[in-house]
Design goal:
Elements lengths: L4 E7 L7 H14 L4 E7 L11 H4 L3 E2 L5 E2 L2 H9 L8 E3 H14 L9 H20 L3 E6 L9 H14 L3 E8 L2 E2 L4 E2 L2 H12 L6 E6 L5 H11 L6 E5 L7 H7 L2 H8 L11 H12 L3 E8 L8 H13 L3 E8 L8 H5 L4 E4 L8 H13 L4 E4 L1 H13 L7 E2 L9 E4 L15 E9 L4 H6 L3 E8 L2 E2 L4 H6 L3 E5 L6 E5 L6 E4 L14 H12 L2 H5 L1
Parallel strand pairs: 1-6, 1-7, 2-5, 2-6, 7-10, 10-11, 12-13, 12-14, 14-15, 15-23, 16-17
Antiparallel strand pairs: 3-4, 8-9, 17-20, 18-19, 18-21, 21-22, 22-23
Helix pairs in contact: 1-3, 1-9, 4-5, 5-6, 11-12, 12-18, 14-15
């Protein structure tokens, strides 16, 4: 059995350089060489997980198949590589400290004084090694969140230092830094990178490979200067320029020999360069697509990262339909009956976004009423599906006071509610349904035609459900409950047959859409939106 190799990815100078994209690209390139890989993210914040973080703070909360609420970078890992991550792929300072404190309370440390070194660092090391030892991966890529020099990152860096020392040729350190361009001077500056590497060296870590983020192409002279000043081989300094799409990064990294440099540093055979055939085909289709499909995202978070997986799923679906997806954000807080027509004008399809809480829901209901009345392809996800159900109850069933128990505890028409059988669940997110659940699709339904299989599994992140006592009424008036959980009989999917595309899902299909295997619901939604495009209809 081969020894698992460990790749550590750190970042310096500023945050948001794209460590997650570089980690995902490394994983993709090593996969293409036939290696079995996984990627994990260590976040220095003290929250147990990002489940309670405001999306404005941290972007979307991504959910793994086993129901762990994680950082959005795990979405990149899965989209790029097709692997399935679990709770073991995501750790925070909060979880590390909690594990150590729980052990101390149980008496596991036999009365020892608990300290950052060795107890916290040992817990970090144990978690770094866990996946490799359990599943015998060829490579475990570990991305450390935050920026070198942050006080909260120190225990992670100390753990990496120890592991590099202990593992020798079985571990490699990759440091991502920034080369800014000073417009006034007309120069690219390497000094921030030099300081970042110096900071890393002061922690006892010499980076093996440097990835330089830059908005302008770096010439050979700058690369040599960085290599010389930072004690890194010249063939281990690569640049990551701004590209039209994040999906071009793996090809760019391969062209510069990043994967070959990693293998050389680990004393592994380099061999032939993989062709990345399917990946390049995807990029070719993406670059060739000129006809646009315009999709509206109706939600309350005016931040790209808040709906990251949905956005990427729509871009992927556009590519596979030979369309360029153009997304338009519509803030549901400001959407009213008076301006809905103006704000939704020119859209080929509308996604009603997920979320929690009261804010912005009336705008979502207003948007749904408009798209239903005008037969515009509409896709409701999680809370979006619940708003479809409420809108239908108010405007078709005639229950003006219909609502979710989440928004109005006293509504007599609680078409969305917490079910009795859920009220006993008190652990792991309380009454939340998190992670993958089974769903059986109804024969003759649109969704069965889309999925082409009766039994599916999709990931959830919600607390409130369709109230089954209203099912007969809904179905008699035209909204069909076509996907059900076989164990609980909870409604997972609603659709209105006869409309171009009007489907709502309790689950989050965006979590399972990848570059090489786009999700069938997104594919069919974008295909339908393209078919009935406002532009096409005008021609």
């Amino acid at each position: 059995m081969t020894q698992t190799k460990y790749i550590f990815v750190t970042g310096g100078v500023v945050s948001s350089l794209g460590k997650g994209i570089i980690s995902s690209s490394i994983g993709k390139l090593l996969q293409a060489r036939g290696y079995n890989i996984t990627i994990q993210k260590f976040d220095p914040y003290i929250n147990i997980d990002p489940g309670t973080l405001n999306p404005y703070e941290h972007g979307e909360c991504y959910v793994t198949v086993d129901g762990m609420e994680t950082d959005l970078d795990l979405g990149h890992y899965e989209r790029f590589t097709g692997i399935q991550t679990t709770r073991a792929n995501s750790l925070t300072t909060g979880r590390i400290y909690k594990a150590v404190i729980d052990k101390e309370r149980r008496g596991d440390y036999l009365g020892k004084t608990i300290q950052v070194v060795p107890h916290i660092t040992n817990e970090i090391k144990r978690n770094v090694k866990f996946l490799g030892e359990k599943n015998h991966y060829d490579f475990v890529i570990t991305e450390i969140g935050g920026t070198i020099g942050d006080i909260e990152s120190a225990p992670f860096l100390e753990a990496i230092r120890q592991m590099k020392w202990e593992m020798g040729k079985n571990a490699v350190s990759i440091h991502l830094t920034y080369i800014p361009y000073l417009k006034a001077a007309g120069e690219l500056k390497t000094k921030p990178t030099q300081h970042s590497v110096k900071e890393l060296q002061s922690q006892g870590i010499q980076p093996d490979i440097l990835v330089l983020r830059t908005e302008k192409h770096l010439d050979e002279g700058i690369l040599r200067k960085v290599a010389s000043f930072c004690n890194v081989d010249i063939n281990c300094v690569v640049q990551s320029e701004d590209l039209p799409s994040i999906y071009e990064v793996p090809v760019n990294m391969q062209n510069q020999g990043l994967d070959a440099a990693i293998l050389r540093k680990l004393d592994m055979p380099v061999g032939e360069t993989p062709t990345l055939g399917p990946w390049r085909n995807f990029l070719e289709r993406r670059n060739k697509a000129t006809e646009e499909v315009h999709i509206g995202l109706v939600g309350k978070y005016d931040l790209q990262d808040a709906y990251k997986s949905i956005r990427e799923s729509l871009y992927q679906a556009g590519t596979y339909n030979d369309r360029k997806t153009v997304l338009h954000f519509i803030n549901s807080e400001n959407l009213t009956e008076a301006d809905v027509e103006v704000k939704l004008k020119g859209l080929d399809g509308v996604v009603i976004c997920p979320g929690f809480g009261q804010r912005g829901i009336e705008g979502k209901i207003t948007a749904i009423k408009y798209t239903r009345m005008h037969d515009i392809p509409t896709f409701g996800i999680c809370l979006g599906m619940q708003m479809m159900v409420i809108e239908f109850a108010r405007n078709v069933l005639g229950y003006a006071d219909a609502n979710s128990r989440e928004m109005d505890e006293k509504t007599p028409h609680n078409v969305i509610d917490i079910m009795e059988e859920q009220k006993d669940i008190t652990n792991m997110g309380g009454t939340m349904r998190l992670g993958a659940y089974e769903c059986v699709l109804r024969q003759g339904s649109r969704v069965l035609d889309i999925y082409k299989q009766e039994h599916i599994q999709e990931r959830h992140r919600h607390r409130y459900e369709f109230n089954n006592s209203f099912i007969t009424e809904y179905e008699r008036h035209g909204m069909q409950c076509v996907g059900r959980n076989p164990e609980s009989d909870l409604v997972e999917i609603v659709e209105i047959p006869g409309m171009k595309w009007f489907i709502g899902t309790q689950f989050h299909p965006e979590y399972q859409s990848t570059v090489l295997k786009p999700h069938p619901l997104f594919l069919d939604f974008v295909k339908t939106a393209s078919m009935y495009s406002v532009k096409t209809e005008k021609q």
